[in-house]
Design brief:
With 295 residues, the protein is α/β, with parallel strands linked by helices. It contains eleven helices and four strands.
Length: 295
């Protein structure tokens, strides 16, 4: 799927999937199920079943005739090394971090995202609703950096994932609470994190400095923090309560502050529905970050 919602049978296919009237499928107007059940895809599957080489797959056939390993062969090899006790197809549900070995067809896009996140302090993943942004973040980016399944970890990353919802400051504070903490200890850590975040950008930087100081006393090599903020649009609705307006402004001020603090080993990636881009104009500094993919 492309950022504008059009679909291809795979990332190397030369043709886009057409409906029965010869019009390109658009994920903003139809579902993946509609595309999968289209006459175009039925014909494509039939060609594979009878041993034909579909025109849209020409790049793979050319690679194989030249004696090189094509994307098709690479995928088949991965499948041969996997055995499933459950169905690997998620349907409309997103793939998760532990599904990295099942996440086929977006290897190039995953690698591009990994490289951009590693090289830039801020990265924005923008696309149509339902295009697979969450799957790319969790089963692609996070799975590769953490080295889940058969994948090897890319580096020493401390990854914190959240969706802001209608309580962005609380959601952000929760990712800085020790996952092993319970009861009063957890409540105390949550209050402390929230008190930092209530101070906006300066408080968020202080929270990260305190966390980095604690880690550096326990580790010889400091880890880079990756803050993955999915479904940013959840807090950008026009009809926000006064509390949400205050929280999201502090949330955004915090993101902008840490991204511009070079001394903090922090990287931020956000995912946003493309139809919410106009709403970002209400927050010009964040809109500028998204537009230029970094400070």
């Amino acid at each position: 799927a492309s950022p504008i919602g059009s679909l291809r049978p795979c990332c190397l296919a030369e043709e886009e999937i057409m409906d029965d009237q010869g019009t390109k499928f658009d994920l903003q107007q139809c579902s993946l199920v509609d595309a999968q059940n289209s006459q175009y895809m039925r014909d494509l599957r039939q060609q594979f079943l009878v041993g034909q080489q579909p025109r849209t797959c020409r790049k793979c056939w050319q690679e194989e005739r030249a004696g090189r390993t094509s994307k098709r062969m690479h995928t088949l090899d991965r499948l041969k090394h996997l055995s499933y006790s459950v169905c690997p197809f998620q349907g409309l549900a997103p793939f998760d971090v532990n599904h990295g070995d099942w996440f086929f067809g977006r290897e190039d896009l995953t690698q591009t995202l990994v490289e951009r996140v590693s090289q830039s302090r801020f990265c924005a993943l923008v696309g149509a609703s339902g295009i697979g942004k969450t799957s790319l973040l969790r089963a692609g980016l996070m799975a590769q950096l953490q080295g889940t399944g058969q994948q090897q970890p890319q580096s020493d990353w401390d990854i914190r994932y959240l969706t802001p919802g209608q309580t962005p400051l609380q959601r952000l504070a929760e990712v800085f609470v020790d996952v092993q903490a319970t009861g009063l200890d957890r409540a105390s850590q949550l209050r402390q994190a929230e008190s930092f975040l209530q101070q906006g950008g300066e408080g968020f930087c202080q929270l990260l400095q305190a966390m980095a100081g604690t880690e550096s006393s326990l580790r010889t090599a400091p880890r880079r923090l990756l803050l993955v903020i999915d479904q940013l649009e959840e807090m950008l609705g026009p009809e926000a309560s006064p509390d949400l307006e205050t929280d999201r402004q502090r949330f955004i001020d915090g993101l902008i502050a840490v991204v511009h603090q070079d001394r903090l080993p922090v990287h931020v990636v956000v995912a946003l529905r493309a139809d919410y881009l106009p709403r970002l104009q209400t927050f010009p500094e964040l809109a500028d970050l998204v537009k230029h993919q970094g400070p």
